[in-house]
Known about the structure:
The chain is of the alpha/beta class. 40% of the residues lie in helices and 14% in strands. The protein is built from 13 helices and nine strands. The longest helix has 19 residues, at 294-312.
Amino acid sequence: MNASTDEHFRSKDLLGLRFLSTGEITHILDVAEQFRGLNLRAIKKVPTLRGKSVVHLFLEPSTRTRTSFDIAAKRLSADTFSISGSGSSTSKGETLVDTARNLAAMHPDIIVVRHRRAGGALMLSQALPGTCVINAGDGACEHPTQGLLDLLTIRRALGGFRGRVVTIVGDILHSRVARSNVWGLLKVGAAVRVCGPPTLIPPGLKELGVEVHHDLQEAIAGADVIMALRIQQERIPRGGHFFPTLREYSRLYGLNRDKLRNWARKDVVIMHPGPVNRGVELEPEVVDGDWSVILDQVENGVAVRMASMYLVLGGERAAAREGRG
């Protein structure tokens, strides 16, 4: 691979976008862009990670992320092994660190981990200094590869980030996707707005330079991108009430064709990390309409995850030593 930026990615782990510099984020996107080209070929497999092994340790349900990581690893010719929460010893009371140490004793090259608790990926990284760790989502903390694929999608749709306005609407409080996007977008120079009920907006965002809105019309006026988020029901404590009803939430914060035509730019880009609750955060005509780049996000996810695995393993540095660019 031959990326266009001078700043290489030098960490053995990918834990969150808040830990990365602007140059590192841009570099990952550049490498992912090249892998994206590979994914469009008739023959999509390359020997880049032949002989390497990747363990997918998903202790929380996932469809898109888990499948995307698996496809990405196999297209790089890595051997993959998948472990779910119900199929792991954590369901028998074993701690996350003990599970990971037992896996590390089998010498995998990468562990891709999704965990319901914030900080789970960082804990593994500290406990396993000899194994690369990629965070596939830890509680309500971060989801760095989702943030990166969203950045790649925006860059491809708009050509860049400077002067662009991105509005994130929905359950910001419980969303790891929102956190990764806020960190990433601010670092690459975009302006970020968030919008939702006051109960679903975490404190401290204004101090980061994020505009906070509770009125949807104000929040989406003039925005280049609107990213809708679903309500994270699985992270809301039992008995917790953050808004009256889903119908009321949808009326105030859901996006439909009329709201977009009356309040938003004609060329606005609509995004959603999935899964979409049709009729709640987005009406079907928005999900499937010309505004939507949701399927582009899914497509770009494979390329970003290929780039992430390639870079944490030092594939770029090895290629440079061997004179392969």
